[in-house]
Design brief:
Number of strands: 0
Largest sheet: none
Distance between the termini: 25 Å
Helix content: 55-70%
Strand content: under 5%
Structural class: mainly alpha
Order of helices and strands: HHHH
Radius of gyration: 11 Å
């Protein structure tokens, strides 16, 4: 489930990323750092449920392990 949600997130344009997908951002200089910062910010928001925080942390781990093309 987490893998599927992460893949969906990676391939979906986001307004926080100026309409780019996270996959596109990863290809940019400092893109990985930008995504990690975004995920950190989302995790810190008090409005997130524990399940949502777990998913965001899982996404963060995946981003750290992805080799940009």
């Amino acid at each position: 489930m987490k893998d599927r949600e992460t893949e969906k997130w990676l391939h979906t344009p986001h307004h926080e990323l100026d309409g780019q997908t996270p996959e596109e951002v990863l290809r940019e200089e400092n893109g990985r750092r930008q995504l990690l910062n975004l995920l950190d910010t989302l995790v810190e928001e008090s409005e997130q449920s524990e399940e949502e925080k777990e998913l965001l942390l899982f996404m963060r781990e995946r981003i750290q392990g992805i080799n940009p093309l």
